[in-house]
# Entry
Amino acid sequence: MAADDLALHDECELTEEEFLALYDASRWPHPALTADIAVFRQVKGETQLLMVRRGNHPYKGAWALPGGFFEPGETIEQTAVRELIEETGIEGVSLELFGIYSTPGRDPRDWVATAAFLAVVPEGVVARAGDDADAVRWFSIATERGSDGAVDMTLEADGVCLKSRFTVEVAPTTGMRKTHVSAHEGFAFDHYAIVADAWANCNLDA
# Structure
């Protein structure tokens, strides 16, 4: 922006510099921001999703996608990379942003929105639990499409079973697939919705 533009006055006769010096950032409520990452792989033709068992409240002991809070000085992409390394030890993979989730009440702690990322990794990638994740597991994904077109999804690992039922529609402009979950069981937060959308857009077996 040119120096002359910065000297322009607004309706209160303030320059941009003066306006910014007086601006009250508390005027608008601020949600917290997190990044969540859906990491898929295929093993002998079977699609698997990486999940972490939460070590802390809320949803302590429940299964969630790896992720965590945005920190000052980061881009949300950097948050996703950092959280994936901290919670699973996985690094050097390509992450693609595919959705923003901001339904009121989705996190019982506070007003929290999340940016969801998607990655597909080779079969040999090793994950290990770290930070506030007390376990990591690759969940095998099985899906069945009903006569009504809805998808019944089951995720299983070491006797743990997570379930959801959803329909899929395609956005007319972007071609992105968006799911609508009608039932779910076993997921922390709204990760049932994020997992369904990630699966529908991962181009493995959706």
Summary: Residues 76-88 form the longest helix (13 residues). The mean pLDDT is 91. DSSP finds four helices and ten strands in the chain.
